Amino acid sequence: MKLGIDYYPEQWPENRWPVDARLMAGLGLSYVRIGEFAWSLLEPEEGRFDFGWLERAIAALQVEGLDVILGTPTAAPPPWLTSNYDILQRDANRQPLAPGSRRYACANNAAYLEHSRRIVTAMAQQFGRHEAIVGWQIDNEFGCHRTTWCFCPACHLAFQDWLKAQYGTLEALNQAWGTVFWSTIYSDWSQIPLPWPTLAQHNPGLLLDFRRFSSDSWVRYQKLQLQILRHHSPNRFITHNFMGSGEGGADQQDYYDLAADLDFVSWDNYPQGSLGIEHVALNHDMMRGFKRKNYWVMEQQPGVVNWRPYNRPVPPGLVRLWTYQGFGRGAEAVVYFRWRAGRFGQEQYHMGVLRQDGSPTRLYHEAGQVAQELKKLPPFRRKAAQVAILFDYADWWTIQLDPHQQDFSYLKLVRDIYRDLWAAGVAVDVIRRSEPLDQYQVVLVPAPILIDETEARRWQAFVEQGGRLLVTFRAFVKERSNIWTDQPLPAWLDELLGVRVEEYLGLPPDMRGAARDLDGKRSFPYWRWAEVLVPTTAQPLMLYNQFYWRDRAAVTQREVGRGRAVMVGCWFEHMLPGPVWEALELDRFAAPFQVPPDVEVIAIDFDGGEEGLLLLNHRSEPALVQLHRPAAELLLDLPLTQMITLQPKGVAIVQF
To answer: Does any domain span residue 617?
Structure first.
């Protein structure tokens, strides 16, 4: 567990670099990321490279024993490139994006690909074996500003080629998309458009495949750079900084595919852009799940940011809490963004470790505190999870394209399921739908709308062998090409779940209901979505209370082999109400004590074999945690106790 910093030496006088390097090392930082937005300095004219200043910056850092992560600068092409070559993305109206910011180049543009190849090759040849360089970051935040999709002529041709590779023949494509609807049967590949604006929606198959193609385009672009770096810079790690799971561009890129070729995932953690405190934890768990291994935080919010509609204050202690949250959930390193707040450019209000005038901010002292604490803490790691949520980008995209109820968000559904687990201190992995399930005892599958027969068989085997499986509404409704199945719902899962879906209901905001347990003693509200379930071999677990589907099944369960399969038919305000929680036997994996509201509990193991807990108080007032047995608190070096008082935004690490 180490700390780092994002640094822009090119934005400061050269005589300041040694001063900054000494301060960084003195603070206890280990890593420095540089270079990812410096293309116009590294190649000031086409074909003329100037690496002298970067060599001197790296040397200044190396003198202080700092390890360098070098970024490839392709997210922000220089003005000469956009002036001499048309590399600009087109928006859906076929208008070019204007240069002058970042992320405006097209991943399928031949000139952009060639110049990216040149600058990355030149940098790799120059710095690839430099002893101070420990790793590379490719580009910066693919998809940021919602730039995964491009509608230019190059992408049009590339999309048609991609479709040929996927379907082989036009007959197969027409069949898969159902182009007989609205008379869009294609007789030549050149007739297939990009999803430019139309009076009504494009064919759903075209829309979903365009998203797949666009994601694949950036995976290929990353691979271009990765192959160069692998060749010229052996024994250095290669990563890319992901953006979490918000709908500001991270939803356009399939991160499982993007992660496949990287040594590990890193990501940029800006909690104030999330949907809630549990969403930050969800993002950490998702990052760990993309390669099923630990990850880095390559940009950690240091304080107030500049890009939110309301840039909320960051209270004392909160950045320290975020740092420990990352370590507790699997981060090998946490890198703060940025060293010194910028005096110019588009991010002038973005806080740094130092202010614009070079004086230390509160984060300077918080980062120093964490660095000193890490020196005395015994190594620990997150305890392996026995509960998993299955996630799929194609499911997300399919529901985005046709939510049926405009408030239906796949991401919110995932978050709502995760929130109930997080609040109880349950350790969770978030993994791809197609991953093996052998290590888990409980698996939850939110809205798996696209059918996969192989996965259905895998889930059947998981339950038969003793697993607990939960599947929600909107399960196995469509083929992979985004056409509705001709089988009764849930297709291919009806035998496992022992249920048929009689009716699906998108509920308007003023239509809320409740479902009760079988003895009628407990009732739980639901909204947004309901499905009327007809048990075939399953047993009802909860029943609807009102409307014309009153007394019909809302939740069912079925014993299968040594396990149990549960289907949840409605969107509960708390997605794991009591009867569902009990059917899945989730108390076995929850914290063995009462977790106060907004206190995060992460189970950890120490290298010596001892068990422990990381406790994080997200509240603005103290929180009292009554442990189930005595433990030593390590940060304050407290003796054995069962009562832990967490200060506002406070952190505790206990060892049993």
So the answer is: yes
C-beta neighbour count of 474 within 10 angstroms: 26
Please answer whether residues 194 and 156 qualify as being in contact, where contact means their C-beta atoms are separated by less than 8 angstroms.
yes
Question: Residue 248's pLDDT is what?
Answer: 80
585-608 confidence digits (pLDDT tens): 999 999 999 999 999 999 999 999
Domain tally for the chain? Answer: 3
The domain spanning residue 335 has which CATH number? 3.20.20.80
Residue 223 near residue 142 (C-beta atoms within 8 A): no
Query: Catalytic residue positions?
Result: 141, 299
Distances (CA, A) of 126 to 32, 102, 121, 238, 275: 18, 25, 8, 16, 43
* In a shared domain, residues 337 and 476: no
Mean pLDDT of the chain: 97
Asked whether the beta carbons of 497 and 558 are under 8 A apart, the reply is yes
Radius of gyration of the chain (CA): 26
Give the single-character DSSP code of 47. T
- Among the candidates 533, 563, 589, a domain finishes at 589
Sign of dihedral through CA atoms 274, 279, 285, 290?
negative
Instruction: Report CA-CA distances (Å) from 335 to 34, 213, 268, 301.
Output: 12, 32, 9, 9
Of 441, 380, 274, 406, which Cα lies nearest the Cα of 656? 380
3-state SS, 565-624, equals EEEECEEECCCCCHHHHHHCCHHHHCCCCCCCCCEEEEEEEECCCCEEEEEEECCCCCEE
Q: What is the pLDDT of residues 271-295, one digit of tens each?
A: 976 668 999 999 999 999 999 999 9
Other CB atoms within a 10 A radius of the CB of residue 413 amount to 22
Burial state string for 435-454 with b = 16 or more CB within 10 A and e = fewer than 16: bebeebbbbbbbbbbbbbee
Q: For residue 100, what are the contacts with CB-CB under 8 A and spacing of at least 6?
A: none
Amino acid letter for position 260: A
Rounded distance between C-alpha atoms, residue 296 and residue 308, angstroms = 24
The pLDDT of residue 639 is 87
Q: Residue 208 forms beta bridges with which residues?
A: none
Domain assignment of residue 416, yes or no:
yes
- For residue 55, the surrounding DSSP H or E stretch is helix 52-63
Band (pLDDT 50/70/90 cuts) for residue 306 is confident
Among the listed residues 416, 522, 388, 520, the one whose alpha carbon sits nearest the alpha carbon of residue 473 = 416
Amino acid identity for residue 500 in this structure: R
- Give the residue numbers spanning the domain of 507: 387-589
At 303, the pLDDT band (50, 70, 90 cuts) reads confident
Of 561, 589, 617, the last residue of a domain is 589
